[in-house]
Design goal:
This protein is α+β, with helices and mostly antiparallel strands and 223 residues long. Helices cover 28% and strands 25% of the residues. It is elongated, with a radius of gyration of 19 Å.
Length: 223
């Protein structure tokens, strides 16, 4: 799953008082505020460039493969932009696997309500595709992180109130661990960050496979 390109000098150079910052430019190919928030909490400071990929035009045999294909598509589209040459691009996409069906963001409140009534008291798997693209070399690494989610049993009134909040219309699977639906999740098995939007341990491994240490990307880190 490697595409080799022509090597070019990496990073950006800022000079201040004779000190040079060689930290690589990092770009998140997603408009998800949850993903951006997790990356910032981990000491990273990515720019955001939305890919504009038509998600409905991408298909795959399984929910996991769909999440991976979408992540790769988003990363590759942004990585192809001339203005990001030399940067590391992170692409992610999440879907909920419920009985083998890939569930992304619900289309409207009616679908979100039906989704929650179908999910309550059951178990699903949140699949998040991750792709890190090094535009310096043209190489990329990608993988899937999977987290089992055990849904609680909110009442019809609680579901109606949650859907009325508008939150489920903007998140994969119509739920999130860091928002108003948190009380309706009984537990998870796996990486909680993956459910919120990005698995930081998996991101670290993908960066390492490209020869980049995650600590080298910490904001304010001089190399």
């Amino acid at each position: 799953m490697i595409h080799d390109g022509t090597s070019r000098p990496a990073g950006h150079v800022d000079t201040l008082g004779g000190m040079t910052d060689q930290r690589r430019r990092l770009i998140l190919a997603s408009k998800s505020p949850a993903r951006l928030g997790l990356l910032r909490q981990a000491g990273l400071d990515p720019e955001v460039i939305v890919s504009g990929v038509d998600e409905d035009a991408v298909s795959a045999p399984t929910p996991a493969e769909l999440a991976l294909a979408l992540a790769e598509a988003k990363a590759s589209v942004v990585a192809a932009k001339p203005e990001v040459k030399g940067a590391l691009v992170i692409g992610c996409d999440s879907v909920l696997d419920l009985d083998g069906e890939a569930l992304g963001k619900p289309a409207d409140a009616e679908e979100a309500t039906a989704r929650w009534k179908a999910m309550r008291g059951r178990t699903g798997t949140l699949q998040t595709g991750h792709c890190v693209y090094d535009t310096t070399t043209g190489r990329y690494r990608s993988a899937i992180a999977s987290t089992v989610v055990r849904f609680g049993e909110p009442t019809d009134a609680e579901i109606a109130a949650y859907v009325a909040s508008g939150e489920p219309l903007y998140v994969a699977g119509a739920f999130t661990l860091d928002g108003r639906s948190a009380p309706f999740i009984d537990g998870i098995d796996g990486d909680h960050g993956n459910v919120i939007g990005i698995s930081l341990p998996l991101l670290r491994r993908l960066l390492a496979q490209l020869g980049v240490g995650i600590t080298e990307l910490w904001a304010g880190q001089d190399n």
